[in-house]
Design a protein that fits this description.
About 0% of the residues lie in helices and about 40% in strands. The chain is mainly beta.
Length: about 80
Amino acid sequence: MKKWVCGVPKTTGMNKTMMKNSIKPSVTGTRSGYVIRFTCPECHHENAIIINMPKSYYKESRDGTCGKCRKHFNVLTPGQH
């Protein structure tokens, strides 16, 4: 279906390509203060996630990305005692 916008036909209802919802591999991280550290299993690079909000400190998992190879991971953190 074409729609006229400012004298130029514009196509509406186009099929949009969506990104695949891939499952991220899980990595266990260690908690030290407000920093969570994890090692990338692909390139063995040590990464750190700095927590700047106290509420997110108590989450048990968060999304992380390797700074070297840019792979995405689900970083699991140990619970509070």
